Structure formats: structure tokens, C-alpha cells
Description:
Shape: elongated
Amino acid sequence: MCDSWLPRRAGERSRSAAAGAGCPRRGSETAIDTIHELARLIEHERDALLAGWRAKVRALPAARDLDAPTLNDHIPDLLAELAAALRVGSNETIPEALLDASPPAHGLQRVRDAFDIEEVVAEYNILRGCIHDLAERNGLSMRGRPFHVLNRVLDGAIGSAVEAFATQKALEVRNRREEYLAFVAHDLRTPLSAISLSARVLELLLARDPLDQSQAARMLKALNRNVQHLEVLVGKVIEENSNLETEVGVKLERRDFDLWPMVEGLVHDLHPVAGTCTTRLTNAVSEDFVAYADAGLVRRVLQNLIANAITYTPRGEIVIAARATGDGGVECSVRDNGGGIPPERCRVVFDKHETDPDKEGGLGLGLAIVKTFVEAHGGEVTVESELGVGSTFRFTLPGRKGKD
């Protein structure tokens, strides 16, 4: 007990006062002793500590089949660094002790070992628990400063390992996509060359002898075959791009824009497609209607919805409309009087890779892209349909105030 409160003569520094002045340091000295003892135990009991850690880490799916050296990886080095950091014990020095040490290298190795990021965090937290158990078995109190120092070191290690892991995973994903798209771009050259050559030969044949139908028919078949090949390759590129946008999120660039000219442009662009099946496209948007959203993404949403409606409306009308909502937002709709969608498909029509079994060649991405882009705005897309009557797709876009 501190006894510095006892009276003493002026100018005299009593033994009690000296002891009292030292009282606040006793807790600090005890904490330092505990930290140094823990560092000694980690070094002395390293093999047993690693064995206990491995036994628990093997419960993680990615760790089950790894041999002991692979599972250990940089953890023995981390324990040495941890002991050194505990001996330093300075709040300013602890983060520096692990800055260029084993955790980043461990994170990179765990990418190669097929760990996921949760498993990387888990194995460090298991190590934390094993060290606490070691301290408890040896009668060390892990409260106060010892607890703070240990957790600060391990949290820093987790952060470094996870950052290295995530960076490497992102780099691998990007490299795979770049390699894949490079292969697709290379493969596009062959059918493009075949189409160009077939078109040229067909042009020369028809110019030389308009009545020679046999060679022209063969050229047309070659053209169709290569066009179909191109459609498959382009579809794969679109799918890959859609996967990327879905995984990493959609970047929005909102602004005010006139909706009528956008719809009018889509009607003009898609008229040849609709014309082949005698479908009429009607722009029912008011000429002064202004929307606040990402114009490029809204255009792709409408294009997909209109193209989808054309597919199911071989003869009829498709109406594109828009109205203001009460919260300052926009509701757009694409209505057709085509064959309609069965109720069971309405529930899954926006799911990725969900295709109509009666329609061939689709990738099941058009309506999934619509959903992704609309929800990125904070809006909602819905469908109402009745067999033999038609379908209406609606999507909402929050206004400027709603977004804020």
C-alpha cells in the first residue's frame, strides 16, 4: 500500500514518500515484466505453440491437406518478430516491427495455398488464442498493457497479411481477365477474315454471273456460320464484362439529361430489328422530360428491355414511357402486347443466366444487367405479365433529393 500521505518534516524526503512516489511505477513495471516473460515463453515454447496452432488451424477447409512446413509457412518467423516486438514494447515501435516482416509474405503464400481471406484472418486469431492460452498456463495476467501490446502486434500482422492477400488476388483476377480477353480478341480475327473474304467473293460472283446461285448459296452459308461464331465470342466478352461490373460494383456518373432524345435514338437504332418482325416501336416519353441518372447505363437498360420486348412481340407494338414519381424520381416502362411470360418465370426472369427454354442463343444476361444497373442507382425493376396479353417492365430511378 502506498503511504506517501504520512506527515514529514519540511525539507525531508521520507522513506514512505519515496515508496509512495514509486507506487505508480509498480503496475507499469509488473506489466513490462509480464510482457518480457511472454516474449521468453513464445521463444521457449515455440514448437509446442506451433503444434497447438496447427491442430486448430486444420479445421479450416484450405488447411486440411497441407503438410506441416507448408502450414507453418512464415508463422515461425512471425513468432520471432512478435517476441522482439514485445520486448521493445513501445507503442511507436510496434507497427514498425512488422512493416516489412513476415505477414505480407504470409498473405501472398496463402493465395497460392488457396485460402480465402476469412481463413487468413482466422488463422491469425487462432494464434492469438493459443498465445493467450500459453500465458494463462504460466500464470501471466493478460490484462491492461500486456493485452494491449499483444493485440496491437497481432492486429497489425492481420492487416499486413490481408492487404497483401487482397492485392495479389485482385492482380490475379485482372491478369486472368486480360489474358482471356486477349484470346477472344485473337479468335475474333478468324471469323472476321472469313466474313470479309466471303463477302468479297460473293460480290465478285454476283457481278460476274447473277444467275450462278450455287456458289452464292455456299458463300452465304459461310457468312452465316461465321456470323454465328462471332455472336458467341462477343457474347462471352459481354458476359465477362457483366461479371466484372457485378463483382466490383458499377461506377455511376449521374447528371440531368433529356430522356426523349435517348429513347428516340434507341427506336431508330432498333427499328431494323423490329421491322423484320413487323413490330412497331412507340416513344411515348414527353419531349421535355428530364431524368437524373447515369445516362450511359440508363441507355443500356432501355436497350436491353426494348430488345427483349422485340423478341417476344413478333407482330404488335412496344411502347416506351416515363413519368415523374412523388419523391422527385423517375419511373420508366417498356410495355408490349406480345406473348407474355409465364408466372413461374416472372419470379426468376432477372436472375443471371436465366434463359427462356423456348428461345435459343440467349446468354441470360440482358435482364440481369438491367437489374444490376437499376439497383446500382438505388432503384427497383419489376415485371407484370399475362400470357397472350403482353408484359410491362418498369424500373425506378431515385431523384437528386432521394439520392442525397
